[in-house]
Amino acid sequence: MKKKIIFFLTVAVMFSSCDDLFEPANQNIREIEGMYGEPIFAQGILLNAYNRIPTNSWSFNDVATDDAVSNDVNSAYLRAATGQWAANMDPFNQWTNSKAAIQYLNLMLKETDKVNWAQNQEASAMFNDRMKGEAYGLRALFMYHLLLNHAGWSNGQLLGVPILLEPEDPKSDFNKPRDTFEANMQQIYSDVKMAEELLPLDYNLNSSITNISQVPEKYRTGNDVNDLDNYRRVFGEFARQRMSGRIAKAIRAQAALLAASPAYSAGNTTTWEDAAKFAGEVLQLNGGVSGLAPNGGTWYNNTAELAGLASGANPPEILWRTDIGESNALERQMFPPDLFGNGRLNPTQNLVNAFPMSNGYPITHASSNFNPSDPYAGRDPRLAKYIVVNRSTLGVNNTIIETAADALTNPDGTPNNDALNRVETSTRTGYYLRKLLRPDVNLNPQTTTQQRRYQPRIRYTEIYLAYAEAANEAWGPMGTGSFGFSAYDVISAIRRRAGITQPDNYLESVKGNKEAMRELIRNERRLELSFEGFRFWDLRRWKENLNVPARGVMIVDGNHQPFIVEERIFTDYMYHGPIPYSEILKFNALTQNNGW
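User: That's the sequence. What structure does it adopt?
Assistant: C-alpha cells below.
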C-alpha cells in the first residue's frame, strides 16, 4: 500500500522565496514519493509539526488552578477543576496532537535524505541538515509536552510514552507499551544534541554573515563567495523563528526542570544540578543576569517595541515566538462587558494576595504595612499591570472599571455590567484580566480597532526562573555553580525590574535559607508567568495542595470581604494526567497511570 499524506498548500509560502526550489504540484493529496523532487511539498510535512506546537496559542488552563476562574459555564478547565477530570474528559490531552506531530517528524527524518532540496548541491546538503535539525528539535519539544501531560506512575514505575523513532504505516504494530520516563528523557537529550549539531545557534541577518569563518568547516568548498551565498540562503534571516540551536537548548532546560521536580525526581536520573546547568547554559548565551530584559515583564504591551519589530526579529525578552499579526480577539474575550468584552477569565483573590507590597514583603508579613481597608495601595507595581482591580482604568478612554457589588450604575446613569456577578459576562471574583491585553484596542462597534501582537513560545524570564529554582535546590540561594550568578542574583534582578523598592530587605532576609528562598522563587514564578499556562503544571510537579478554593472579593460600602467563588476538587493521583481512555481500550500493552 502506498503511503499517502495530506498537505495544505498554504504552508508552502514559507519557503517560496528561494529561486532554486521547485514549484509544488497543484493538488492536495500526494504520494510520499512526490516530496523527493518538490522541496516545498516536502517541507509541508515539517510545517505540519510547527502548526501543532502547543504554545502557538494561549490555553488559559489557569482556570483549573487557584489563580483564575471563568464565567464560561461550559469551560472544560472549569469542569476539570471541579471534579470532572477523567481519562475520557481531559482538556489537557496532548496525546493525539503531539503523537501526530512526531509521526510527521519521523517521516521527515526518514525521507529527507532523498529530497533534492535545491538545484545547487552544496545548498541542498545544507537544507537537508537544517530540516533534520529542525525535526530533531521539534521531536524533543513534542516529547516534552507528552511527558508534561501524560507521564505518571504505574505499577511502581514512572512511565512516559512509547518512544517512536520511525514513521508508522498501516502494517506497523500500534500496540506498544509505554517506555520509562527515564528513557523518554534520554531520547529528548539525544534529539536536542542532534539538533545542536545540525543547526546554527541562531539565524542571523544575511548582512551580518560576511566572513567565511562564520560558515562551518563542513560547508566550505574553497569557493568563499558561493559558500557564503549558500549559507546565507539556508541559515540566514529567512529561517528566523524556525527551530535553532538556542531554542533546542531551552527545550532541554524545560524538560530537565520537569524531570528534577518532586513529582518526577524519584523515577529518573535528571538532577536539580542538571536542570540548573541546562538553564544556565541558555542564560550565559544571553549575557547572564544582565541579559534580563528591562521591559520584559510587559512584553505584550511594549507598544513602540511591537510597532518597530522587524519580520522574524525578537525583542530582548523573547527567545522564540509566533509571527506578528493584528487582532483584537483576546480583548473580545477578556475585556469587561462595558468595554464590549466577555470578561472571560477572572483573576482570583488568591493571586492578588500573592503580590507583595512595593517594599517586597508579603502582605502577611509584619513589616509589609498592608492596609486591609485600602488593599491595593502601596502594592508591587505588577499588580496594577496584570490585574484590573476595583476603580482602576482600562481601554482607549481610560474607563474606570467598577467591580464593587454595590456599583449599580455608571457615571452616565447606564447599568454597570462590570460589577461583581451583574450579568453573565461580569467578573465572578471582583477582578478582570489586564495582562496580555492591548489597552489601546477599541471594541466599540462604531470605532473598532486591532493592534499588533505575537504569541511567545518561550520567554527568557521563564528560563531565568527555571535556573533560579534549580540552582537554589542544587547549590542553595547564593550558589553559582560554574555560571557566576546565583538564584539570589536572578530573583534580585527580576524583583528590581518589577519595581520592588531597593534595597530589597525581604529578599535579603531569606537569602540564607533555601526553604524560604524556594517559596519566594515559586511565588515570583507565579506572578511573572501568570496567565501564560504555567501554574497548572507547576502545582503538580511541586506536589503542592491542589484543593485551595478559588476566592474573590465582594466590595460593599468600601468594605472588602473575601469569599469562596469555586471549590477545587482534585486528588493526589492527579499530580499526573491520564493516558486517554480510548487508547487504553484500543491497546492492551498500554498501562494507565495510577488512580485513573
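The two ends are 38 Å apart (CA to CA).
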